[in-house]
Amino acid sequence: MLRSNLHRGFTLIEILIVVVIVGILAVMVIPKFADARRDASISSVRNQLQTLRAQLEVYRMQNRGISPASSALMQALVDEGLIRRVPDWPAGFAIDSAHYESTGLLRLSYDPAVGGDLIDEATVAGW
Known about the structure:
The protein is mainly α. The protein has helices at 12-62, 73-79, 97-103, 112-115, 121-125, and strands at residues 93-95, 108-110. It has one domain (21-125). The chain has five helices and two strands, in the order H-H-E-H-E-H-H. The longest helix has 51 residues, at 12-62. It is elongated.
């Protein structure tokens, strides 16, 4: 009675080759996910800022051109029903109060010491 060897398993070399290939693919793909996460965070911040600028203009039209004080800006927009809640900015982002006080325009500031090297200050200043 000869048994045929139909149920042969994988050899150690075959398994090691598969592990190496999966590792190489992981090294190539993981940085792309990190970039996508950063880009999504930046896009979210820019969209929130654009919405806030539009709602601030609505507030000004409803209040005869008067802007809320910078210290109460976000809460004033919530109280008027223009936004649902005060936005939660990602780490490092904040409304630039000095710029708002002097120009009446919303602008974000970014502190790399808090938020890391997500984005540079010059890019945020252009928003």
